Amino acid sequence: MLYETCFLLALVTSLAIEVPVLIALVRLVFRKENLTLTSIFSAGVLCTAVTLPYLWFVLPTYVDAAYFLFVGEALVVAVEALILNRLLGLAPKTAIACSLIMNAASYGFGLILL
User: Fold this and answer.
1) Residue 60 is part of which domain span?
2) What is the longest distance spanned by two Cα atoms in the chain?
3) Higher-confidence position of 109 and 114
4) H helix or E strand, kind and range, residue 17
């Protein structure tokens, strides 16, 4: 399968996992009732759409394979937390927790698929 096709499958899968996880976290765990479903959904889509292409196409050029998982996921969590903080107004610790859990869920599901 082409690398680009694998990327598109990863993108769709990540969106299908991370966005519902974010919605559940914001609404059920952190009880942010003031945020609309549309704003949470949009922020979740933006998080994945912004970070995944860099993780797949840019970062491998600059980060050694031995450190790729750690560096890549750490950068993704940081960028997504910043997006969640700015767009949804989540406290920094809450935004980091959401991003970490979203990415752990999609990464774990990806391991199951392999």
Assistant:
1) 3-113
2) 44
3) 109
4) helix 3-24
Total number of domains constituting the chain: 1
Amino acid 43 reads A
How many angstroms separate the CA atoms of 66 and 93, rounded? 28
Question: How many other CB atoms sit within 10 Å of the CB of residue 65?
Answer: 7
Check: pTM over 0.85? Answer yes or no.
yes
- CA 51 to chain CA centroid, nearest Å: 7
**How far, rounded to the nearest angstrom, does the alpha carbon of residue 93 sit from its chain's CA centroid?**
16
What local confidence, expressed as pLDDT, does residue 1 receive?
87
Residues 6+ apart with CB under 8 A from 84: 22, 43, 47, 90, 94, 95, 98, 99
Rounded Cα–Cα distance for residues 99 and 101 (Å): 6
User: Taking the CA of residue 10 as centre, how many other CA atoms within 13 Å lie in the half-sphere pointing to its CB?
Assistant: 22
With contact defined as beta carbons under 8 Å apart, do 80 and 88 qualify?
no
